[in-house]
Amino acid sequence: MKILLVSSSFFPKIDGSTRCVYDHARKLAERGNEVYLVTRGMEGTKQEETFEGIHLRRSSYSFRAGVLSDRVRLMLEQVIMIIMLQRKERFSVIHAHGFTSGLAALPCKYLFGIPLIVTTHGTELLWPRKLWWKTEREIKYTLMFEKFVLNHCDVVIAQSEGVKAYMLRIYGNKLGKKIRIVHTGVDHQKFMVPAKEGGAPQVLFVGALSEIKGLSCLLRAFRTVQGEIPQVGLTLVGSGPRAEEYKEAVRGMKLSGSVRFCGPVRDDARLLDFYRNSDIVVLPSNVGGPISCTILEGLSCGKAVISTNVSGGIPDVLADGVGILMQPEDDFRLASEIRRLITDPEYLRTLEANGRRAVEQRYTLDSMIEELMLLYREVEA
Fold first, then answer.
1. What's the first-to-final CA gap in the chain, in angstroms?
2. Cα radius of gyration (the chain)
3. What integer pLDDT is reported at residue 126 of this predicted model?
4. In terms of CB atoms within 10 Å, which end of the chain has fewer, N or C?
5. Quick check: 139 and 125 in contact, CB under 8 A?
6. Phi/psi of residue 322, nearest 5 degrees
7. In the prediction, which pLDDT does 72 show?
8. Closest CA to 105 of 75, 87, 80, 79
9. What share of the chain is helix, strand, coil (3-state, %, to 5)?
10. What backbone torsions phi and psi does residue 228 show, to the nearest 5 degrees?
């Protein structure tokens, strides 16, 4: 089958949605499908290349931030790229990741009758008001834009029941007819590490260094735990515009000897080393959204996972003893749970086993691809 994927970003950018798109495209190509991916250009990348069986087509124009005219220019270029590719390759289905990518693919859907599937990766409408990047007016226009894309595509992918619930709440119950649930999957064969043997207890965070992910809460909780268990360490994998502020906060808490800032990591072998050397994976997110790749990777590696009871996919994954759920910004509870996991080996081992079992039963990348292939065959042109 010929499949066109559209995404706002791809490697070398590193984030959860990029990981999802990469795994999605790679596995489709491994199964013998002809997979093309239209994405945004980035400095130092080629406009056309084949990457792990994926035929990449990058726009010539990109920007990190810009005015409306910049966004329109990029959008028009991607619309033209998609139409030209369709004329040449004649795809069976288009699968767009994100609202902007869905909008770029809509003209092709209507010109050629190609089914369009959209997977969303969250929305700022789920964030606490104090964390909004946009103004209220911009949020209002964003909602109109998101509704337009979802109402005009053929199928909307929700990664869990919780994701479906917030989509219906935000975008309206009419969307229910076209929502299909396909759980996000993790490569459970790749993300499998030997059990950690001895050494000081280690807490691992993987994600953007920002308040969106609850970094201040994590640092406060870690300071409490480290005051009682001096040998515990915290490793932070990721980057963000506030990284220097967090480093300064660590110095102010006198934790520099216990907290490591490791920067962003693209290489999976290195990322697996971080998981292997950790005991607990923590993601104290302040915002709702789809299922987190960090959480699935942590569970797949057999680690105890702590996260927050926010709208969307995280509670769906960690419910029923698979992991630990807490309320956002509750550093007292977070410290308590980290302390218990460090001091109660039986409790730690139970969560480790529960997490790995949940991934094997419900959240493998192979099962996700199987469900997507069935959907593609159902809707293909």
1. 11
2. 21
3. 81
4. C
5. yes
6. -70, -40
7. 78
8. 79
9. 50, 20, 35
10. -100, -30
Q: Which residue has the tokens 């520099």?
A: 256
Structural contact between residues 177 and 156, judged by C-beta atoms closer than 8 angstroms: no
Pairing assessment for the beta strands 304-308 and 324-326 based on DSSP bridges: parallel
Low-confidence stretches of the chain (pLDDT < 50) are none
pLDDT of residue 56: 94
Q: What is the CATH number of domain 2-185+365-379?
A: 3.40.50.2000
Query: 202-362 domain in CATH 3.40.50.2000?
Result: yes
Query: What phi, psi does 150 have (nearest 5°)?
Result: -70, -35
Indicate if 202-362 has the same CATH topology as 2-185+365-379: yes
Q: What is the pLDDT of residue 97?
A: 94
Neighbouring C-alpha atoms within 13 Å toward the C-beta of 83:
13
- Evaluate whether 59 touches 84 at the Cβ level (below 8 Å): no
Phi, psi (5° rounding) for residue 213?
-95, 0
Residue 252's pLDDT is 96
48-51/54-58 β-pairing: antiparallel
Q: Would you say 314 and 287 are in contact if contact means Cβ atoms under 8 Å apart? A: no
Q: Which letter does DSSP use for residue 194 in this model?
A: P
In whole angstroms, give the CA distance from residue 18 to residue 8.
Answer: 9
What's the pLDDT score for residue 135? 83
User: What distance in Å separates the CA atoms of residue 105 and residue 297, rounded to the nearest whole number?
Assistant: 31
State residue 13's pLDDT score: 72
- Angle formed at CA 11 by CA 5 and CA 14, multiple of 5 degrees: 115
Using CB atoms within 10 Å of the CB of residue 270, give its burial: 0 to 12 exposed, 13 to 18 middle, 19+ buried: exposed
The encoded tokens of residue 203 equal 């807490």
Residue 115: is the preceding peptide bond cis (ω within 30°)? no
Q: Which residues contact 8 (CB under 8 A, 6 or more apart)?
A: 17, 39, 40, 97, 98, 100, 101
Contact residues for 151 (Cβ-Cβ < 8 A; gap 6+)? 174, 175
Domain parsing of the chain, residue ranges: 2-185+365-379, 202-362
Hey, what are 52's tokens? 């792990």
Q: How many CB atoms lie within 10 A of CB 378?
A: 11
Q: Which residue shows structure tokens 């050397």?
A: 277
3-class DSSP state of 263 = strand
**Cα–Cα distance for residue pair 91/28, rounded to 1 Å:** 14
